[in-house]
Every structure is written in structure tokens, then in C-alpha cells.
Design goal:
The complex is a heterodimer of chains A (about 475) and B (about 100). By secondary structure, chain A is α/β, with parallel strands linked by helices. Chain A contains 18 helices and 6 strands. Chain B has a domain of about 60 residues. Chain B is flat, with a radius of gyration of 19 Å. The chains are: A alpha/beta (about 475), B mainly alpha (about 100).
Chain lengths: ~475, ~100
């Protein structure tokens, strides 16, 4: 068919790669509007399929390699599909980190493979060296950084920022070593040994880069590392002379960078503040304005008291947080809301942009529990309604209602937009303990005279409230 | 500079602008799915992994390539599947929806 239409095989391949690129762009476009989002994912997947099938016409592996490659694909598919199918909705963010990390690792390996091949045939130039060095450095950083992000979110290690004296000096030395080795490879040497050392040091930098960032900021970091992987893939595209790699990688690199900025904007913070301020570390300055003394008392209530309070309210605003997600309490919270509505109570959910562990995460969890879409209110829509509410029911959230964000310039979250739960006539906190939230900051709101605490697992507490409301 | 290189640079610059433009109006609730979806797209490195593996000389290059194929496959398959699962939750609900 290609011959009759006057196309050479090469030209056909290029046009099919163009088609794949267009589908990637359309996919991203659809992904950024609620209506077309799911279709957008499918569009991009079709583009991927076309690109892969097209690339098969370009390679001529031996029979032995074909078998090995098929085995590799089967192993990867099993891992990818099983993990993606099995993962709980609450663990989505770290799953994205993991899938991003392996992509970065693949980009680094592809570049090293191509480099070793071309160096031995001595047909390499400076462009190849630059592309390979970039891809190895950035891809490895993304791999190692994503691994740390995964470990922090999976709570395999502490989510608190890890800082130590002289950290910046150490990081500076690591960075300088990377620059020097890169220059050596680009300008003077084609030693595979040096390239391998570069890869290892880049892994170290990836770890060092993410360690001082708090768990609550991981979504922004993952988004940034996602952009990193995109750029590493684009660089591999330069090394291999493959346009579809350049387009796919660059699209992700560019859109990922913008998305990272949008995410930190949604948290009311600058990107450099997110990356370098070690927010969540207990700060000395926070003591001045927001110290919480031992003498402050906390009022805790019984489920029955709170059940009555809820049942005889006119308006209840539920503020769901990560604690709800962890306890898998999204179905019980809907049951409670349905029950209250049946009693004539006006129930809404106030969704903070970064509720859960990622923007949009909470919407996904509540939608899974069949919460009606029109009950979910974004922060700007609902913030003025809190003063009309009889009860703000805060389920496993903390930082997103912490008034310190408005009142205490010394607080690490100062400036983050928060939900005005403090304006409600009564505030009910369902919390495991007095432990500070994910950002590691105390919350003065828990000591407010209007506040009643109900300690325990979010799901247990909600189940008790359901029973109490039924009884009242 | 070779004509090919000029072509690649052109492609790179244009793709960068398109990447920024195309997502400039995304609402907050779609940030996570969008990140996850674009995460799947850089799985295109799979094409590079296949190419390097098939052109490899010797054991080291072969195994580097195969490892890259495994990692890239996880990226592509996992990326698209997990994004689809997230977006499944966003399907429009009619008032007359049937429950379980």
C-alpha cells in the first residue's frame, strides 16, 4: 500500500509517528477538561499503540532477541497491569510516582545502551554526548527521587523532611561532581566507566533532592519528576534520532512543568518554597505566634452528643481529609450524609484543592462512594457558607482548616488558602489523636471553645455517629 | 549542524510550546489524572528501548536494553491503566442512576 501511494517506508514511518504525536496532543487536551478526560486517556493510548507498532517496522532483531524482548514485555505488562489494577484509590499518588520512576530509569538505560553501541563504532559526535549525559542525569534523578517519594507516601519512611547540618554543602558538592563529569564526557572522554559513575552520582542527587521535602508536598514533587522524565525521554530521542520520542517526551516535560507550577499555586506556595523550604520540619519561629501550651484544654464529646447535634442542625458542612481516605470511610460518610438529609439537614462537602494527598484525590474517593456531584463544593464556592453552617464536621483533615495559615506569619503553611471551618457555629473534629497533620504543624482550632473532638479511627467514629443519628 | 539536528530542534521547540498551551486551562480536580495521563505518555521511551535492544551488540548492551524494555512497559501499561481507573470515577451521574 505504501508503494502504490508513492511513499517510501521511511516516509510512511514518519507520517505514522506524526499521527501518534497528534493523538498525544489531542489526548492531553481532552484530559484537561472534565467531560473528555477519560476519552483523552484512551486517545493517548491509541497514539502509543500506533507509535509502538510503527517502530516494529524499523527494527530488525534476531530471533533470539525477539523471544527475550517478548518475555521482557510480558514481565513488564504483568507488573504494570497488576499493580495498577490492585492499588487502592488511596495509594494512587505513590503508584504514579512508581510508574514515573521506572520511565526515568528506562530513559537513562536507553541512552547508555545507545552510547555504548555508537562509541564502539566511533560514529558519535558532541550532540550524542550531550543528549546522553542529559538523559542519564535527569532520568536517574527522576528514578531515585520517585523511589523516595514512593517510600514517603507509602510510609515506608518518615514523611517529615530530613535535614542535617551541611546538607546544602553536600548537595552542592554532588551537583558540582555531576557538572564536572558531564563536561568530561561531552568534551574529553567517552569512557563508559565515567558515564556509569555519573549515573550513580545522579541517583544520589535524586535522593538528596527529595529527602528534605515533606510528605504533604510530595504531589508537587512527583509532578516535577514527571516533567523530568519527559525531558529525559526527549533527550533519549535526540540520541536515537527518533522524532516521536522527542515529541512525546517534550510534551510531558513542558506540560508537566506548567502543571507543577499550577499545583504549588493551588497550595498558595511558590515552587521554590515547596522544594527548598523543608516545610513540615518543626520550626522554631512557629513558637512565637502559635505555641500551644500544655494548659490549653480540649473538649472531647461522645458519639451520642455529636449525633444529636448533627441531627438537629439545619446545615452541616463535611470537610473530608486524608484520614477519611486512609480509614476507607468514604462509604460511611455518605451513609451519614444521606441519613442527615433524610432528616431535612442540608449537607455539603467542602473539598480543599489539596485534600487527600493530591489535587483532585478527594473528589475521586468520594465519587467512588457515589456521593452526588452537586454536593461536592470547591473551596471558593463554599467558604462563605461556613458562617451559616451549624456544624463543620472535619473528618481526618487538619492542615486544610488550620487558621495558622491566615494568622501566623511564622507558620510554614502561612499563606495557604484554607477552608473557613472556624466560622461555623460548632466544629466537630474526628481525629485519631492530637497528633499534628501531615505537614507536622499544630492546629489551634482544636482548642477552640466551639470545637468538640471525637477521637478514633474515622470509620469507627462515623459508624458510631450513624447509629447515634438513627437513635435520635 | 546537520539538517536532521535542525529538524529535531524545531520539533523540540514546537512541542514545548504545544505542551504548555494544551493544558493551560485544566481545573484543579483534574490535576492528578492529568499528571498520571502524561506520565503514561512518556512511556513512549518503550520505542527507544525496543530499538536499543534490537541493535545491541554483546551481553551488556542486550541486558541494559531488556531491563529498559521491562521498565518502559511498566510505565506504559501501569500509567494508562491507573489513569483510566481514576477517570472512571468521574463518569457523569444521572439523577436516575441505579445503585448497586
Amino acid at each position: 500500500m505504501l508503494a502504490t501511494s508513492g511513499l517510501t517506508l521511511d516516509e510512511g514511518v514518519s507520517l505514522l509517528y506524526l499521527l501518534a504525536s497528534v493523538l498525544f496532543i489531542l489526548g492531553l487536551k481532552q484530559l484537561s477538561s472534565p467531560k473528555g478526560a477519560r476519552r483523552g486517556n484512551t486517545t493517548a493510548a491509541i497514539g502509543m499503540l500506533i507509535a509502538i507498532v510503527t517502530s516494529l517496522t524499523e527494527i530488525h532483531p534476531s530471533a533470539g532477541k525477539i523471544v527475550l524482548m517478548i518475555v521482557a514485555v510480558i514481565i513488564g505488562t504483568l507488573f504494570g497491569a497488576v499493580l495498577a489494577r490492585r492499588v487502592k484509590m488511596t495509594a494512587m499518588p505513590q503508584m504514579v510516582a512508581a510508574f514515573n520512576g521506572v520511565g526515568g530509569g528506562a530513559a537513562a538505560l536507553v541512552s547508555i545502551g545507545e552510547y555504548t553501541r555508537l562509541v564502539s563504532s566511533s560514529s558519535h559526535g558532541v550532540v550524542l554526548a550531550i543528549s546522553v549525559v542529559f538523559s542519564v542525569v535527569v532520568g536517574s534523578m527522576s528514578f531515585a527521587g520517585s523511589a523516595i517519594a514512593f517510600a514517603k507516601l507509602q510510609e515506608m519512611m518518615t514523611g517529615i523532611p530530613i535535614t542535617y547540618a551541611g546538607q546544602q554543602l553536600v548537595n552542592g558538592i554532588v551537583l558540582a561532581a555531576i557538572v564536572v563529569l558531564s563536561i568530561v564526557i561531552i568534551g574529553f572522554s567517552s569512557s563508559i566507566m565515567i558515564l556509569t559513575i555519573l549515573l550513580i552520582i545522579s541517583l544520589v542527587l535524586g535522593v538528596a533532592f527529595v529527602l528534605p521535602i515533606g510528605g504533604a508536598d510530595m504531589p508537587v514533587v512527583i509532578s516535577l519528576l514527571n516533567a523530568f522524565t519527559g525531558l529525559a525521554v526527549a533527550a533519549s530521542g535526540f540520541a536515537l534520532g527518533n522524532t516521536v520520542l522527542i515529541v512525546g517526551g517534550t510534551l510531558v516535560g513542558a506540560s508537566g512543568t506548567l502543571l507543577t507550577k499550577m499545583m504549588s499555586d493551588a497550595m498558595g506556595r511558590s515552587l521554590s518554597n515547596v522544594l527548598f523550604a523543608a516545610v513540615g520540619k518543626v520550626t522554631e519561629s512557629a513558637g512565637a505566634g502559635g505555641a500551644i501550651g500544655q494548659d490549653q484544654s480540649v473538649r472531647s464529646g461522645t458519639p451520642d452528643d455529636i449525633g444529636v447535634l448533627l441531627a438537629y442542625s439545619q446545615k452541616v458542612i463535611i470537610v473530608p481529609g486524608y484520614g477519611l481516605a486512609v480509614a476507607q470511610a468514604q462509604h460511611v460518610v455518605r451513609e451519614l450524609a444521606d441519613l442527615l438529609e433524610a432528616k431535612g439537614v442540608d449537607v455539603k462537602y467542602a473539598i480543599h484543592p489539596v485534600a487527600g494527598r493530591m489535587p483532585g484525590h478527594m473528589n475521586v474517593l468520594l465519587a467512588e462512594a457515589d456521593v452526588k456531584y452537586d454536593q461536592l463544593k470547591e473551596m471558593d464556592e463554599i467558604n462563605d457558607e461556613f458562617k451559616l453552617a451549624d456544624v463543620a464536621l472535619i473528618v481526618g483533615a487538619n492542615d486544610v482548616v488550620n487558621p495558622a495559615a491566615k494568622t501566623d506569619p511564622g507558620s510554614p503553611i502561612y499563606g495557604m488558602p484554607i477552608l473557613n471551618a472556624e466560622d461555623a457555629k460548632n466544629i466537630v473534629f474526628l481525629k485519631r489523636s492530637m497528633r499534628p497533620g501531615f505537614a507536622g504543624i499544630d492546629n489551634q482550632l482544636m482548642f477552640d471553645p466551639k470545637t468538640i473532638m471525637l477521637f478514633g479511627d474515622a470509620k469507627d467514629s462515623l459508624t458510631k455517629l450513624v447509629a447515634a443519628v438513627k437513635a435520635s | 549542524m546537520s539538517p536532521e539536528l535542525v529538524g529535531y530542534i524545531t520539533t523540540f521547540v514546537l512541542a514545548a510550546f504545544v505542551g504548555i498551551e494544551v493544558i493551560s486551562k485544566v481545573p484543579t480536580i483534574l490535576h492528578t489524572p492529568l499528571m498520571s495521563g502524561s506520565n503514561a505518555i512518556h512511556g513512549i521511551i518503550f520505542v527507544g528501548a525496543l530499538s536499543v535492544t534490537s541493535a545491541s551488540h554483546g551481553t551488556v548492551q542486550l541486558w541494559l536494553g531488556l531491563l529498559a524494555v521491562v521498565l518502559a512497559t511498566i510505565n506504559v501499561v501501569g500509567g494508562f491503566v491507573v489513569t483510566d481507573r481514576m477517570l472512571e470515577m468521574f463518569k457523569p451521574r444521572r439523577p436516575a442512576e441505579e445503585k448497586r
